[in-house]
Predict the structure of MFS transporter.
Amino acid sequence: MSSSSTFATASPGRQAQISTRIAFFIAGFAMAAWAPLVPLAKARAQLSEGSLGLLLLGLGAGSILAMPLAGYLCARWGCRRVIVGASVLICLMLPLLASASTLPLLIAAVLLFGAGMGAIDCAMNIQAVLVEKASGRPMMSGFHGLFSVGGILGAGGMTALLALGLTPTLAALCVVAVTLAAVIKAAPNLLPYGNESDGPLFAVPRGIVLFLGALCFIVFLTEGAMLDWSAVFLVSERGMEPAYAGLGYAAFATTMTIGRLTGDAIVARVGGARVTLFGGLCAAAGLALSLAVPAWPAALLGYALIGAGCSNIVPVLFTAVGRQTTMPQSAAIPAMTSLGYAGILVGPAFIGFVAHGSSLSIALGVLIVLLLFVAASGRYLRN
């Protein structure tokens, strides 16, 4: 039986808003906690660079495969069951990722961990769209801001636990304990329903959903480039010491988090169309600055501008896909989220391919053109 009949009788309020923020925190916290475990897994299983690449590809593959199913299940069972189920799957996989020592077992764990991440990512965005609609005011940036906060605390917390001498498995169990406590706190006020109407299990994005998905792809492509290539660029092109090269992504992530936490007020004041326009221009200018000025402080400033510019574009896009009527949300939101994830997956390889044929600066410069396209597309977004 569809849960759509429940939708008309329930109206999410403040407690549902808090639970939505917690769901975003859980996703960011658990995802980032895996990052410090990657080199340990590589050493434990004695993986080559190619095998590690295959392993990391499994994370994105599991996520993308799970997203359409999660959208369908949200419509049938409600957001609460999907978010809680995905969180439990994530908690089961993290200790395995911290202890498995063979490639087949690691691949299986990463695929299931990725499936849990994809499912919660899709379900929490469906819930966010419904909660934001009920509130009558912009809330999406704040929700995504909690994902960023969770990411900072997840990576920092796992790193700190390992630095204190905890085994990877014990550190992972500490992360699991925090995650389960957050799930228990959030669960009572997660939405017991999902989308207004059922949609197909899988649907090819079309119309405005395809357009929004393409914009989402570009922004996530930029984020993936910052994650994987900012440190390489600082070391190889700007002569920065490798020990400090992580400052590039730190500058990007910091301004992105601040931008999202303050973004709801900005969107309410100027509207989503202008946020997309000026955000795209800001990000393009930051990338241009990092490439044009041959000094690492300029690159750091450029990365900070990229983070600030990109911070609220994706939340605005999710609000926009929640308004469209071309496709059911149970299909539209997973489709757009999948395109975004594809950007993160394709981004590093795309930059590497272009850099191999020309230079890293030229490869990153391609992103400037794409970000200007995003900025120009802002005019087509309703406020």
